[in-house]
Amino acid sequence: MSPAVLMLAPPASARPLMRSPIAFRCEATAHDLSGTREVLLATYRGRSPRLATRWLRAQALHLARLLSPDPGAVFFRDAPLITARPDVPRPDAELRGWAASDQAYEHAIRALAAGRAFVFEVTDYDARYSLRVYPLPTRRPAPPQAPVPARCPPHSPAGTGRHRRPRGRRTPR
User: Three-state SS for 46?
Assistant: First the structure.
């Protein structure tokens, strides 16, 4: 991988794995290089480390297609295209390489299963693109409480309902 790629999440340690959180917050973002703006491109809430990592892989391929569309596409038919020099940053190639790597996929799953965040970033001339996953904290469910027996409403004596007029009397109009 090139120096423009940053992968955070050290390999799994000898510590036993903690219980997996209920969910993972997955994000794809773009930042300008000055660090003043961030654009949220996509989000997902994964229920397991494997689902979150699958989303990351699919999002990496999707972002790579957006950064480097097929030159034979219809909308490029009349556009003047030139071949880029080999020293030009290619974040699309880094994204495709990461998505195709089974080793990188397993590394991300292990990091998430251990309860750690995972970040994959690539940079080009204009922006830094990030694929991030954060474990969401778990809450233990409240202990079950004893059911409260349902009570019947108090019974009203006959003839005392709402909007009832006494019989036999007429009010003059």
Answer: strand
Encoded tokens for 121: 């970033």
User: Rounded distance, CA 119 to CA 105, Å?
Assistant: 12
* Beta carbons within 10 angstroms of residue 143's beta carbon: 5
| pTM strictly above 0.70 | no
Closest CA to 53 of 118, 114, 121, 136: 118
Residue with token string 């994204």: 95
Q: Is 36 helix (H, G, I), strand (E, B) or coil?
A: coil
Structure tokens belonging to residue 119? 């970040």
φ, ψ dihedrals at 32, nearest 5°: -75, 160
Q: Which of 119, 132, 108 is nearest to 11 (CA)?
A: 108
Residue listed under structure tokens 């229920």: 47
In residues, how long is the chain?
Answer: 173
Give which of 23, 26, 40, 7 is closest to 132, Cα–Cα.
26
DSSP H or E run through 100: helix 91-100
Average pLDDT over residues 39-45: 93
Share of the chain above pLDDT 70, in %: 68
Mean of per-residue pLDDT scores for the chain: 79
**β-pairing, 6-8 with 118-123?**
antiparallel
